[in-house]
Amino acid sequence: MGCGGSTDKSDDGTLKRLKKPKPWRHSEPITRAQLKKMREEFWDTAPHYGGKAEIWDALHAATEAQLELAQAIVDSAGIIMTSEDMSVCYDERGAKYELPKYVLSEPANLVKDH
């Protein structure tokens, strides 16, 4: 990825587009409520990791949107994706934004709330 935007060409010359994250498992089964709490804690503290608040806001919105809308959000915010699942992104000034798996998708071992 270059630094022109999220739709820069990948190494094979095709445009890099958002894709559904790969399946993953949490270290132990968790409930939807626990996952929600983890996500809320991450997004509450994310701006403290550095970068711009508006980029964190755009990433947050993109993680909660369907793929097409998420792609539009990323493109309009000028976010540079180095991974197709948004786990590692940069803003136009080169600040790095790392997103944990649990904000990108649900784990395979999600259990029903009690």
CATH topology (level 3) name: Bacteriocin As-48, Chain A
Rg estimate, integer Å: 15 Å
Mean pLDDT: 87
Number of strands: 5
**How many individual domains?**
1
Low-confidence parts lasting 5 or more residues at pLDDT below 50? 1-10
CATH class: Mainly Alpha
Q: Characterize the main sheet.
A: 3 strands, antiparallel
Q: How many angstroms separate the termini?
A: 44 Å
Shape, per Cα inertia axes: globular
Q: Give the CATH superfamily.
A: Ub domain-containing protein, DC-UbP/UBTD2, N-terminal domain
Name the beta content range: 5-15%
CATH-derived architecture: Up-down Bundle
Helix content: 25-40%
Q: How many separate helices?
A: 4
Order of helices and strands: EHHHEEEHE
How is the topology of this model organized?
Blueprint lengths: L29 E2 H14 L7 H11 L3 H11 L2 E2 L6 E3 L5 E3 L2 H4 L5 E2 L3
Parallel strand pairs: 1-5
Antiparallel strand pairs: 2-3, 3-4
Helix pairs in contact: 2-3
Question: What can you tell me about this protein's structure?
Answer:
With 114 residues, this protein is an alpha+beta fold. It has a single domain (30-109), classed as Up-down Bundle (Bacteriocin As-48, Chain A). Helices cover 35% and strands 11% of the residues. The protein is built from four helices and five strands; from the N terminus they run E-H-H-H-E-E-E-H-E. It has helices spanning 32-45, 53-63, 67-77, 101-104; strands spanning 30-31, 80-81, 88-90, 96-98, 110-111. Strands 2-3-4 form a three-stranded antiparallel sheet, with no helix packed on it. Strand 3 (88-90) and strand 4 (96-98) form a beta hairpin. Helix 2 packs antiparallel against helix 3 (67-77). The longest helix is centred in the middle third of the chain and has 14 residues, at 32-45. The protein is globular and about 45 Å long. It starts with 29 loop residues before the first strand and ends with a strand. 18% of the residues are buried.
